[in-house]
Every structure is written in C-alpha cells, then in structure tokens.
Amino acid sequence: MGWRRVVAFQTRNPMHRAHHELTVRAAREAEAAITAASEAFNAWARLPVPKRGEIVERAADILRAEMDDVARLLTREEGKTFADARGEVYRAYNVLNYTAGQSRRLSGVTIPSELPKNFVYTMRQPLGVVALITPWNFPLAIPTWKLVPALVAGNTVVFKPAEDTPLMAQRFVEILLEAGVPEGVLNLVQGIGEETGAALVRHPDVNLVSFTGSTETGREVAIGCAQRHARVSLEMGGKNPIIVMDDADLDLALEGAVWGAFGTTGQRCTAASRLIVHRQILRQFTDRLVERARQLRLGDGMLPTTDVGPLINEAQLKRVHGYTEIARQEGASILTGGHIYTEGDCARGFFYAPTIFANVSTDMRIAQEEIFGPCPAIIGVNSLPEAIEVANSTKYGLSSAIYTRDVNKAFLAMRDIEAGITYVNSSTIGAEVHLPFGGVKQTGNGHREGSPTVLDIFTEWKTLYIDYSGRLQKAQMDNE
Ligand code: ADP
C-alpha cells in the first residue's frame, strides 16, 4: 500500500492526551487511491465470489487470534472500556465470519417468464469503486460492516476513517491485506473530512459513497453525490427513546437505561438519550437512576474497575458541557453531574460526569438534538399514546425501546414508534450483525446495513432474459 509522508497530524489518546505522530495522505492522495481502485476493479470483480469470501474468512481468523491486542489498541485510541472494546472487536469478527458465509449466497432469483421458451433471472453486480467514510465512535465495527460486504460483493474500496481514530483503521486494513486482499483493491486514505472526504464525494469515478456520521455532514455528502448522480448511503444521528411504562419490571428498565445512556460514554448512535417514563413511577425511577449514575466509576478504560471512559476529544467535551448550559437556560433540572470530571487521573482526560436532565419537555433542544455524551433527558408522560407521541417527536428514528409487561402495549409500541429498530424489554443498544441496521426519518436515507440488506447498498441488480425459442418472441404482444 506504500505509506507516504504527506502531512503529519496528531492523534490523541483521550485518557492520557498522549500525542502520536501519524502519516496521513492529503486530499490529493485521494485521487491516487481512486485511480488504484479503478485499475484493480476488473480483476477483483471477476474473481469468483466464494474466493473473495475465503480471503475474508482468513481475516476473521487473524482478527480472532489478535482480539485482545486489537481491543487494547481500540481502548487506548478511542477511550471506551476494554470490555466494551472487546465486544466491538467481537462484532467485527462476527461481520467477517457472517459475510464470508454470505459469499456463497450472493444470489439472485429465477422467475417464470410469460413467454414459452424464455429463461429469466436476476443477479447482483458490483458498482465499481466505492468510498467509505466513517466516524470515530466504532472505529472498527463500522468500517467492518461497510468494507467487508463491499469487498465480497466485488467492489474496490477507498476507505477514509475519522481523524480521531487513524490507528485502528490502519490496523484493520493491515489485517485485510495480510489475509490476501490484493494491492489496489483496498485503499486507506487518512485525512481531514472537509478535504479528503469531500474529494472522494466529488470524484466522478466514485460510484457510491457510504457514510456514517453526523446529520450535518451527511447532508453535505448527499448534496455532493446528488450533483453528479452518484449513489449514497447515509447512516446518521439518533435521539433514541426508552419508554418505561408503569407496569414495567423496574429493575430491568433501570439496567437498560444505565447501559443505554451511560455505556460507551453515551457515544453510540443508538445510545438511549431520552427516557420517557410513566408518571406513576417517575419519582421512583428517577431517584434510582440518579443513585445508579452517581455510582458509575470514571477512568482509564484499561482498568477493570472503570464503568465509563472519556469523551473522544476536547471539542466533544466542550460540546457536551455546552448542552448542560442549554439545559439550564431551557429550565430543565440537572439532577446529577453537569460538570467536567477532573478527579485523580481523570484530570488528564476528557471526562464528563454522568448527567441526568429532568423536567424536560419535548420542545427543548436537549430533547431534540443528538448530544453524544452521558446525559439522558427524562420526560414524564401519562399514557402509552403520549409516550409514543413523545418518542416520535424528533427528526431522528434510529433505535427505540419499551419496557412493559403488557403484551398489548408492547405490540402497539412496535407498530407505532417511528424507528428502524425497536427493542422490547431491552435497551436501545446491542444490534446483531445478521439483522438489518439503520433508521427512518433524518437518521438515514432508506438503506439498511448488516444482514443481507447491506448488499442492496453495494450491488446493482441486473436482469437477464435468455430466449431459446429461435424466433422473435414479443413480450406482452404474443400473449393474446
Ligand atoms: P462526527 O461528528 O461523528 O465526527 P462527522 O460527520 O463530522 O461526524 O464525521 C464523520 C466522518 O465524515 C469523518 O470521517 C469525517 O472526517 C468525515 N467528514 C467530515 N466532513 C466531511 C465532508 N465535508 N465531506 C466528506 N466527509 C466528511
């Protein structure tokens, strides 16, 4: 792949603020990567799909053998706890494994023709060069669930990871190359979003951009692709609700709320950022949640005692703290937290105290905007219809959950919540790789990653008609 020193920018471990120097490719390097991917396409696309799957299977074996090592790197670079990081690496392993299997099932359908001697079927075909632009919060899992199906489907790839997590991206690409992905098929370009990312979006030879990140950047990417009629798949923000009904198992709901809101420091696109609680149990639920939030231990993700790691960077720390200010101005109560956390070693990192906003109404910014930090908003409601109305009151629709023991309420919620994913009696996080993942409304643009549905992003359908009548058969006209 030939790393070339073009620009050096610094990446920081969010816990220790240590500086690494990293060689990155500048925007013009995107051009070279696209050329390499274009040149590699024909040979890669002609390789039998199961052969591509075998390479992916080898990558799964390598990742499995290096699981702890890769998880340590993930924790050091991104900050999430080691247990969490290990879960992410395991998820990436699941994707590799699953997609290797899928390589033997990249099938179309055969359909009866309306003509007497005609054979018709469909097949999937790769798109060509695809660009993948990814965020820092799942620096291994998100690239994996884009990159691996893209490759198995026969595309060649230019991969631009987030600025904050270049090392994880580099390690992942090295694993794939070691497994046998040929030169030029997979090209890593490290660079700034507005330069390198934008260069990929603009380039006429990039046939699809698959993006995960903020809603604002997603809009830019979509506009860029629309200018030249390129395909685009977007996975963006969430303001994911957990509804807790008065008949819920409260202990279970609390576990789910703590994990959903504070797990991964709230930096998941599926994090539970709104807790919509029936007023019958509001007081009890709130008191117990505050108690649980105060017990969470912040610190270095490598320590087994740590429950909550740091935020990714200083800008994010300021942004999250800014929302505490907004909450105050909007008249919400801050029941716990609401400050930058500087005890002990945490003074050297970007830590934010687990925070709970209460007395929140749906029109407040803290009930509408994605914060991406450990600070859920509690909203009281009087009924299930009101809970669902509140749940649906944002522009997002990624994940959602309801805690109830009443099967009728559960089914109404499953039917009426506007979201790509709804959990019953479980938190908003924990997607499995063989199920569709994605959201409605402004969370996405109609695609689903994971499961076989991801192939609809990375392939085109081709329809084939084979006439074995030896004469000109006319569809629709010969049928009379
Ligand atoms: P986040 O707020 O999670 O960092 P962003 O949407 O800013 O999300 O970033 C997600 C990815 O998009 C990153 O890889 C980033 O470098 C890239 N990016 C940022 N701005 C642009 C842009 N204008 N065009 C293309 N990619 C971009």
| N-C termini distance | 61 Å
The helicity comes to: 40-55%
Task: Enter the CATH topology name of the largest domain.
Answer: Aldehyde Dehydrogenase, Chain A, domain 1
Runs with pLDDT <50, length 5+?
1-9
Classified in CATH, the superfamily of the largest domain is Aldehyde Dehydrogenase, Chain A, domain 1
Class per helix and strand makeup: alpha/beta
What characterizes the major β-sheet?
A: 5 strands, parallel
What does this 3D model show about the protein?
This protein folds into 2 domains: 7-236 and 444-465, Aldehyde Dehydrogenase, Chain A, domain 1; 240-424, Aldehyde Dehydrogenase, Chain A, domain 2 (3-Layer(aba) Sandwich). The chain is globular. A hairpin with a 6-residue loop joins strand 1 and strand 2 (19-24). With 480 residues, it is an alpha/beta fold. It has helices at 27-46, 49-65, 67-78, 82-102, 141-152, 166-179, 193-202, 215-227, 250-262, 279-295, 314-330, 365-368, 384-391, 407-416, 454-458, and strands spanning 7-12, 19-24, 110-111, 118-126, 129-133, 156-160, 186-188, 208-212, 231-235, 240-244, 272-278, 333-336, 356-358, 377-381, 401-403, 423-424, 459-467. Helix 2 packs across helix 6, helix 3 packs across helix 4 (82-102) and helix 4 (82-102) packs parallel to helix 5 (141-152). The termini are far apart. The protein binds adenosine-5'-diphosphate. The site of adenosine-5'-diphosphate has 16 residues, from helix 7 and helix 8.
